[in-house]
Amino acid sequence: MTDFTRIPFLLDFYGGLLSERSYSAMDMHFNEDRSLAEIGEQLGISRQAVSDLISRTKDKLESYESALGLAERFLSQRDQLTEIRSQVTGIDLDTLAQEDKETLAKIDDALTRMIGDL
After folding, report:
1. In 3D, which of 73, 78, 81, 53 has the Cα closest to residue 13?
2. pTM exceeds 0.90 for this model
3. Total number of domains in the chain
4. Which of 67, 64, 79, 47 is nearest to 11 (CA)?
């Protein structure tokens, strides 16, 4: 993942642990694609201060992920659920009893909801 995909992802998990100022700077830069100068003007700090703030905050987000691993766990669980759903939908329904077909349909629905909720 590049910074412009990874950092917003980490912000979703750990943004609540950041100060309002740090979160705002990261959100403006990575989600709103605003320049350092625009962010500096909004926050009332220099372009260099914004750059430093973003750099420190990126390090902090990476540190949180390294310690807690929530984002990686999320991706792993999503991939596992997707694989399970793929296996379930790949079963030949013609060879199953009606009761088993209904059970598989319920499992497929539950997996679809779980993946959607992630």
Report:
1. 73
2. no
3. 2
4. 64
